User: Fold this.
Amino acid sequence: MSDLRTLGLALATSAALAACGTSSDAAPEPHRVAIQVGASGYDPAEVEATAGEPLTLVFTRTTEEGCGGTLVIPSQNVRRDLPLNEPVEVTFTPAAGRLRFTCGMDMYDGAIVVQ
Assistant:
């Protein structure tokens, strides 16, 4: 009889966890990558990602030198101002390929390699 009770408790616990949203059907958390924007460009300048999985890029401009005040990701129709020392998040779900990102003057160059 105690084996049946243990089995019943295990089933009830599993059902309760599933009801709380801990199942594997939940949307995946975006992969996060921090990118520093300095006087000479992006660090890292190349980021790897997986096609179909959410990606969050966190850009932080660390200097007023250079032209890093604006971020452009043409394929995603993204254009964002990058205030000094304030992280700016950009989240999207990329398709396979190589996605370029650049500054507003098209002088800094970076890429997201999506496989």
User: Anything to note?
Assistant: The longest strand covers residues 31-38. Residues 4-23 have pLDDT under 50 and may be disordered. Residues 35 and 45 are 8 Å apart (CA to CA). The domain at 31-114 is CATH 2.60.40.420 (Immunoglobulin-like).
